Amino acid sequence: MLEVTALNAWYGEAQALHEVNVRVGEGEVVTLVGRNGAGKTTLVRCLIGLHRQVSGAVCFLGRDVTRLPAHQRARAGMGWVQDDRGIYASLTVEENLLLPPSVSERAWTLKRVYEAFPELAGRRKAGGTTLSGGEQQMLAIARALRTGACLLLMDEPSEGLAPVVVARIREIIREVKATGVGVLLIEQNVTFAATVADRHYLLSQGRIVETLDTADLQRREGELLKHLGI
Amino acid sequence: MSQSTATPAPVTEAHPVVAAANPRLRWVLLAGGLVAALALPWFVYPPVAMDIVAMALFAIALDILLGYTGLLSFGHAAFWGSSAYVTGLIATNYGVPFPVAIIGGALFAMILALPAGYLSVRRSGIYFAMVTLAFAQMVYFVGYQWSGLTGGENGLQGVPRHFFGVELVETDSFYFYYAALPILLLGMWAAWRIVHSPFGRVLVSIRDNTQRARALGYEVDKYKVVAFVLSAGLTGLAGGVFAINHGFVALTELHWSTSGEVVLMTVLGGIGTLWGGVLGATLAVLLADYLASSGFDGIDLVTGSVFVLVVLLFRRGLWGTVRHQWLAWQQRRSSRRTRSGGGTRR
Asked: Tell me, what CATH number does A83's domain have?
């Protein structure tokens, strides 16, 4: 579904990503693990098309999208769930949900969104940012699913949330995966990553240094935590 | 783990949720506004009343860009003035009923806005303002130099007011007011529809966060151009009515100070409130009219001082401040109610 080959990215003179190769299959959850500043968010911004100073190739659904501007990638089916959730304060919950265009026939109806996220159903007329952090995270995910995106790029969805909410997010990611949507998850929380993802890329100083499966990850959790400096 | 960002961002005070919470209040305000618009020429000299409503639509049209798209246009005189000239020329040369001439003027403004918008939306902030200003200055100089068509410094004189041979409307500005009012009200309704449509929500998302709007799948520049052209069209509608109302088009309508004046009115009423423009225009026109008839020389001194005071005391503008206080009062009331009802909802 998503195939990134030899991606390099720069900020001016400084190279932020070196020869990055990443693959996400249909219905697969893949995490990017790495320290602050390793290049995780840069990679996602390159994929969604907001960072354009790149070389290499990004293939999405068998199509080279490296030169496509951000809005066309979104319309091709990439959904971005930002780390700050990207909820509009001046729009209500429902307006936030309906804001992005539907991009494919797998687009969710509002009814389906509210069934899957009953937390949002009761607050549909509330201002987007009057929701709690967890609810905002759900809204951000729901908004991407509502468009019918087939690949979700999620930037630290568990960050700063209470354990019970993190468990709910985990459940949601599993449900999303079951519908065949691919998920690329940026995560610093190794424990959380281990419970939802199929594969893990360890990113360090702009390079993919290791590719692990979940068994590896769990076995080496202590070592990785040390690497991540947590 | 990095610093928690779980605390929800505070609701941006300047931009509360677009949808109004209270539909009954909305009807009351709408009815009040309509009554005020209908009663206005009974209390104010009718041509001045017409100016107020035309300026109000002008300010509302600017607010679509300034308040809802986050673009400060400093060149709207180009659309206001060019529509006034085109309306005047059509009315003079073809003798059509004035609404037709006005529609012609508005269409011309939209056509003019297309290249202007296309070029200017590539920049934002002060650069956008400067590109629009530069464009408006070019239009001004065309108007100034092409005196064979526009009358140059003398302006376009003797613009007729044809209206299907209805003599009362053609000669009496009191009746003309009621004939032209629907055009302006229709323009205001269109602005309201634009802002509250899905298209309007995309504009708001662009204003709040351009990159995010792009990543959600919207071609930001295209939306900005469309907003620009729509705003210019409504501005043109207002400028056309203004021209017919005065029977005369002056070069001032194209001058940059007109662009400044409408920004002032919009800010006075409250950016991003739409109806604030009505208050701002009413205040500015009435004040200028009162001072002009009082024989006082320093009109700009007084309007300038009022502007500075309003901006310092009521940051959200007149309408914005009233709305903010009303919402805050409602919130206090409802939170008191839930507290007495046992436990606050968090």
From this structure: 3.40.50.300
Is position A99 within any domain? yes
Nearest Cα to B77, choosing from B272, B242, B291? B242
Say yes or no to pLDDT of A39 above 70: yes
Q: What rounded mean pLDDT belongs to chain B?
A: 87
CATH of domain B43-334: 1.10.3470
The total number of structural domains in chain A stands at 1
Residue B11 has pLDDT above 50, yes or no: no
How long a stretch of residues is chain B? 346
Each domain of chain B, given as residue ranges in start order, spans 43-334
- Domain of residue A136, residue span: 25-52+68-228
Residue at A3 is within a domain? no
Across the interface, whether the CB atoms of B2 and A188 are under 8 A apart is answered yes
- In whole angstroms, give the CA distance from residue B254 to residue A194: 66
**pLDDT, position B21:** 57
B317 CA: distance to closest CA in chain A (Å): 18
Chain A contact set for B217 (CB, 8 A): 71, 74-75, 100-101, 103, 147
Of A90, A95, A100, the CB nearest to B15: A90
Q: What is the ipTM of this complex?
A: 0.79
Report how far residue B155's alpha carbon sits from residue B147's, in angstroms, rounded to the nearest whole number.
Answer: 8
pTM of the model: 0.84
Chain B neighbors of A161, CB-CB under 8 A: 6
Phi, psi of B21 (to 5 degrees): -85, -25
Question: CA-nearest residue of chain B to A83?
Answer: B5
**B1 and A CB contact within 8 Å:** yes
Q: Which of A95, A136, A189 sits opposite B201 (nearest CB)?
A: A95
Has residue A1 been placed in a domain? Answer: no
Angle, CA of B48, B51 and B54, to the nearest 5°: 155
Separation between Cα atoms, residue B313 and residue B307, nearest integer Å: 10
Indicate yes or no: CB of B217 within 8 angstroms of CB of A80.
no
For residue A168, being part of any structural domain is answered with yes
Is some CB atom of chain A closer than 8 A to the CB atom of B4?
yes
